[in-house]
Design brief:
nine-stranded mixed sheet, globular
Amino acid sequence: MPRIVILLLLVTACGPRDRARPGELDAVWRGEESGRFIAPLSAIHCAETGIVELLAIRGDTGVGAALFLQDSARVDPVEFQVVPGSLYNEPRPGATAGIRWFATTTISAFEGVAGMIRLELTGEALTGSMDVKFQSVDRPDTLRMAGTFDRVPLVRADSGCGLISKRNRV
């Protein structure tokens, strides 16, 4: 009997989860493409550039956002309006967002064009939500993503973190 119990525990532990854990992004998108995504979320604050970089990657799927802070040294609870990153404009406060995954024979890549990212502080951790409209970067397809995250540790980057901004502009 104990072997059956162990086997059942292993099967349920390896199967898909229906709920995110603290420190993870739980996102659902619908439109021309649809999907669900739960993955660890990192949050890196670079006071040098006044940007918080949010990044969740699992397998071939990734969701990311750059939050442009009003005060570069502080992360405040605020709503960040999403604007297209191709505008090469950093409204403060404001945000850019992107999502990508590998489809059967291509890479699906979408740029955030509208929406909000809401942020709250819980000690040195971030809790919040995303409601973003995305446009495909190479097709007329659109999708809408809603996501939540809870108690994501906020990492303070060192003085060389300005490379984040340069990397994202290449």
